[in-house]
Amino acid sequence: MLAIKTVKYYVKPAVFLLCLMPLLLIIGDLFEITGTLGANPIENMQDRFGIWGLRFIVAVLMISPLRSITGFTWITQFRRMIGLYAFFYVLMHFLVWLLLEQSLLMSAIIEDIATRPFITIGFIALLILLALASTSTMNIRKKMGNSWVRLHSSIYLASILGVWHFWWQVKKDITEPLIYAIIISILLLFRLRKKYTYT
């Protein structure tokens, strides 16, 4: 069992830097230090930020099952940090679309959100993550009480919408979104089983 001090001063900073690596690699590719962004750099950045956002959402959902299976309670100390990274990468995915693809042209932005279903559900997922990120501090958790637990359970809804958004976006090869859909389904079933086992 890891000591609290070890987790706080050594493991957490290491995990923080590891979570930052996708951003650093994208920046490195942007400046052609670590690679390139290919023929369509905007689409490349947008896709990579979105996929990493979804991966971090999955990572958040895996924390409770891992704690239950392994008995490592210290794993839960990473939930907030990984959750904020999930929001950060999804936000970057949205900002690349907003600033670089749409050039802040409000008429095109509103039309896309209203008429393209995969953008609509992606935007809803972002709003859910925004609500979770803005209420993630311990002080707010204490003030909200049981409402906080109900609100933060909506991470499952955000994950479903994220996979749905990804699925509709790829159109042809659905292999990758299907993998995420299966993983999230297993994690959701694990949560439901645990919930109804103890009620």
Q: Could you explain how this protein is built, in words?
A:
The structure is a single chain. The chain is mostly helical. The protein has one domain. 81% of the residues lie in helices and 0% in strands. It is built from 9 helices and no strands. Helix 5 runs antiparallel to helix 8. The radius of gyration is 18 Å and the shape is globular.
Search tags:
199 residues, 9 helices, globular
Condensed summary:
By secondary structure, this protein is an all-alpha fold. The protein has helices at 4-30, 41-70, 79-101, 106-115, 117-134, 138-144, 146-152, 155-170, 175-197. It has one domain (42-64, 78-197).
Largest sheet: none
Count of beta strands: 0
Structural class: mainly alpha
- Strand-and-helix sequence, N→C? HHHHHHHHH
CA-based shape: globular
Topology:
Layout: H1 4-30, H2 41-70, H3 79-101, H4 106-115, H5 117-134, H6 138-144, H7 146-152, H8 155-170, H9 175-197
